[in-house]
Amino acid sequence: MAYAVISDIHANLHALNAVLRDIEKRNVDEIFFTGDIVGYGPRPDVCIDIIKKNCKILIAGNHDWAVIGYTDIEYFNEHAAQAVVWTQNVISNEHIKDLENFSLIKSSKENNAFFVHSTPKEPEKWSYIYSLDVAEVNFRFFKQQLCFVGHSHRPVILEKNAAGEIKINEGHATINSDSRYIINSGSVGQPRDGNSRSAYSIVRDDFIEIVRVEYDIKKTQQEMAQVGLPDRLIERLSYGM
Ligand code: ZN
């Protein structure tokens, strides 16, 4: 049994296609999505169609909720807010309805896994798991062995062992039967860990891996420029920040 988790695609079609091609080569059974299909990027409609077709679970992120008016863009920075308004103006009504149907949280019994965009503790508040103390609290808010999150665009695998200690695994980890995990799969469409390649996670038997994939960044940047998305959002893709 193997599955992939993708997150924070942000309407970056070329990144999404590159990641799905990579996943296809690895022979996985299922793909799960942990939020933010839109926002920042230039191709919202087609990206929604693709994940509807390919992903078993569709989770809502803060940008998805902002586009449909469930989350106030007052809390977004200037450029993120501009991209939300741009998305609202171009997205089809059918896709608005799709975003309304995305879930805040979901679980998969067969994979013993929980899925949320921000935190298991307060999914609708869009806070971040930015420290081990915050992670410690959040481990109490799901009962499954694995919890997949997105939101920060920085991949990491947090492991809490039977003694209650939390350790940070970068890149990969063996799943120990008496440990529990919070896994941030990173971002497909706008990585922010100083690595411009798309990120996603894959679980095969008892092994979790963060995979990085090259994509045609220039193509996405050209599309963003053509539709007038902010320069800052275009430039940051080159640096993965
Ligand atoms: Zn995001």
Description of the molecule:
This protein is an alpha/beta fold. The chain has one domain (2-236): Purple Acid Phosphatase, chain A, domain 2. The chain is built from 8 helices and 12 strands. It has a 6-stranded mixed β-sheet with strand order 3-2-1-11-12-9. It has a 6-stranded mixed β-sheet with strand order 4-5-6-10-7-8, with helices on one face. A hairpin with a 4-residue loop joins strand 4 and strand 5. The radius of gyration is 17 Å and the shape is globular. It starts with a strand and ends with a helix. The model has no long low-confidence stretch (mean pLDDT 97). Bound molecules: zinc ion (ZN).
The CATH H-level superfamily is Metallo-dependent phosphatases
Number of helices: 8
Oligomer: single chain
Q: How many E-type strands?
A: 12
Structural class: alpha/beta
What is the CATH T-level topology?
Purple Acid Phosphatase, chain A, domain 2
| SSE arrangement, N to C | EHEHEHHHEEHEEEEEEEHH
Number of domains: 1
**Numbering strands along the chain, what is their spatial order in the largest sheet?**
3-2-1-11-12-9
What is the general shape?
A: globular
